[in-house]
Automatic annotation (TrEMBL):
The lineage of its organism: Bacteria, Pseudomonadati, Pseudomonadota, Gammaproteobacteria, Lysobacterales. InterPro entries: AA/rel_permease1, APC_superfamily. It comes from Luteibacter pinisoli. GO terms for molecular function: transmembrane transporter activity. The keyword Ligase does not apply. This is Amino acid permease.
Length: 455
């Protein structure tokens, strides 16, 4: 594999991927990413972290934080509508040949760490729910099924993006309809006595409450995550300065309503103790109402959702190494496009294979590690990137967040709160990852005599 160029100039001959994704395609890419396996396996975790009605505050707080952060993504995506999203936002905001090189590299570094784990987690969730239908699958079978799903999705995505957009739309409609069916079932079979038992549960007080609220909010943010997926595909979006903000800001309240509905439905049908210790809580809800067939149909629909989530997350992340390579900041082969269909080939295959390998790892602490690394590497930096870009650029036709800079302040405070309540070991691991990435960047910069060692 050849090295990368050290100028900021593009190294890829030929044309960029075509702009083929419209509003519905962008919205479906976000929603399908958000409604993956997350809520179906994390609702019990949330109930364990903060028992009692206060758990709903965590879901609401997570939605509000995501809405403020969504305004950050919407403005950045409208201002710099390029594939690879944050890589370009950070470089443009902090100077492409100055500190932006460091921020861009750190984003790429954290993506190489988190992308396989994020995609692999959806695949592992798929395999776990598949075990509900195939109890004899076994541990090895679960791992192989998850890894096989990652490789299958890589093969599916090895084609022009327009075909994937149509497939994404169909799956999104099915997934949203399935969630609506679950919510409708729970509401129409809502038992006041069961719900009252949950509402009468005393919530923790003092430090325990704030730690629990932080844990639930972190879980909620993980589940809501994906509202920014269209930003990863910015260079392939039609009318991006209008489409990207609409896709981001429409997807968050839509999914928030579905998730709150899921929580209320579950807590009105199943005793909260049962829900908190369930490994397939939605399947148990549907089985309690409709019998065995209801649980089995619910599992099939969840499998479709988790497969679709892994598919679109792989689609989005596969564009990040491509974007860096096309800027001359990563290995040149990653900038290769398919000669006929115009999609990144090496980048897609690399992310797909590493995601399959991630399925062989233990992912028990995946949620906290993914979120804290992304918060420290990227999300907080993006808040300041909005401020920097506003000072440097005055494009008249870009989206501007309302109530500026209040959403930015809320986002920064919220992200710092989630990091502070995530646990010492998680924070330490994230800090070490940042330090290692920074040292690699400085070594490369010194070797090539680029910023901050430019002579």
């Amino acid at each position: 594999m050849t090295g990368w160029r050290d100028s900021g100039n593009p190294v890829v001959p030929g044309t960029a991927p075509p702009r083929a994704i419209g509003l519905w395609g962008g919205l479906s890419a976000n929603v399908l990413n958000m409604i993956g396996i997350g809520p179906f396996v994390t609702i019990p975790l949330a109930l364990t972290a903060l028992a009692g009605p206060a758990v709903l505050l965590g879901w609401i707080a997570g939605a509000l934080l995501c809405l403020c952060d969504g305004l950050v993504w919407a403005e950045l995506g409208s201002t710099v509508p390029e594939s690879g999203g944050p890589y370009h936002y950070l470089r443009e905001a902090f100077g492409r040949e100055r500190a932006g090189r460091l921020f861009g590299f750190l984003y790429l570094w954290q993506t190489l760490l988190t992308a396989p784990l994020s995609i692999g987690s959806a695949a592992v969730g798929f395999a776990q729910y598949a075990g509900y239908l195939m109890p004899s699958l076994g541990t090895t079978g679960h791992v192989l099924l998850a890894a096989g799903l990652c490789l299958l999705n890589t093969a599916i995505l090895y084609r022009k993006v327009g075909d994937i957009q149509r497939l994404s739309l169909v799956i999104t409609v099915a997934v949203v309809a399935a969630c609506a069916w679950v919510v409708f079932t729970g509401i129409t079979h809502f038992d006041l006595a069961t719900a009252r038992h949950f509402m009468d549960m005393p919530s923790p007080s003092g430090k325990g409450f704030w730690l629990g609220l932080g844990a639930v909010s972190l879980i909620a943010v993980y589940d809501y995550g994906g509202y920014n997926n269209v930003c990863m595909l910015g260079g392939e979006v039609k009318q991006p300065r209008r489409t990207i903000p609409m896709a981001v800001l429409l997807s968050i309240p839509l999914v928030a309503v579905l998730y709150l509905g899921l929580n209320i439905s579950i807590l009105g049908v199943l005793p909260w103790e049962t829900a908190a210790h369930s490994t397939a809580v939605v399947a148990e809800l549907m089985q309690a109402v409709h019998g065995a067939w209801g649980g089995e149909v619910a599992v099939v629909l969840i499998l479709v959702a988790s497969w679709g989530s892994a598919l679109v997350v792989l689609l989005g992340y596969s564009r990040v190494p491509y974007a860096a390579a096309s800027e001359g900041q990563f290995f040149r082969p990653f900038a290769r496009l398919h000669p006929r269909d115009g999609f990144p080939t090496v980048s897609l295959v690399f992310v797909g294979i590493t995601s399959a390998l991630a399925c062989f790892l233990s992912l028990e602490r995946l949620i906290s590690m993914l979120m804290v690394v992304q918060i420290l590497f990227q999300y907080i930096a993006q808040c300041f990137a909005v401020v920097a870009l506003r000072r440097r650029r005055a494009d008249a036709d870009v989206f501007r967040m309302p109530l500026y800079p209040l959403p930015i302040a809320i986002s920064v405070v919220g992200w710092l709160y989630l990091v502070a309540t995530s646990g010492t070991s998680t924070m330490l691991t994230a800090v070490i990852a940042i330090a290692v990435g920074g040292m690699i960047f400085l070594w490369q910069a010194r070797r090539t005599r680029t910023w901050p060692f430019r002579t």
